[in-house]
Amino acid sequence: MAALLVATLVVLVTFGKAYIELPGVWESAVHQRRQIRINPLQTFHTGAAWWAPWVNLIGNMALFAPIGFIAYRDSILRATAIGFALSLGIETGQFIFAAGFSDLDDIISNTLGALVGAALASRWRPYESYWVIAAGSAIVLTIFAALTTIA
């Protein structure tokens, strides 16, 4: 159940931003493109607003932390690799479907998020993990749904 909620959230956020307007946060037209950015941390030097790269970095890490948390099964490296592979697949899909920038920064921050999630899971009791992820995912999905209806 938690994995399904997290997967839904990741798909909505990564592909949905090309079709959903959030005034002051992002414009869908900006994300309806096919572009590859391979320079690491380039957005920290070329961002339109000083806070934009930080929002992107922290947002991507927060988005992928639940993936690392759920994927953790006695190996932080394995969970991080799953996060990396999923991130690479998403960035490839965004390029193929012209649904956003395919950005090396996203792969880095997504993978770091999965690493953080896996590290947290390694310290958590197994019976608590799924409830925490399910509740957190439900809260984030509710906020995302509320924002999209406002826009």
UniProtKB/TrEMBL annotation:
Keywords for this protein: Membrane, Transmembrane, Transmembrane helix
Domain VanZ-like: 5-122
Transmembrane feature ranges: 51-72, 79-101, 131-150
Pfam family, one: VanZ
Protein name: VanZ like family protein
Recorded superkingdom: Bacteria
Keyword Metal-binding belongs to the record: no
Transmembrane helix among keywords: yes
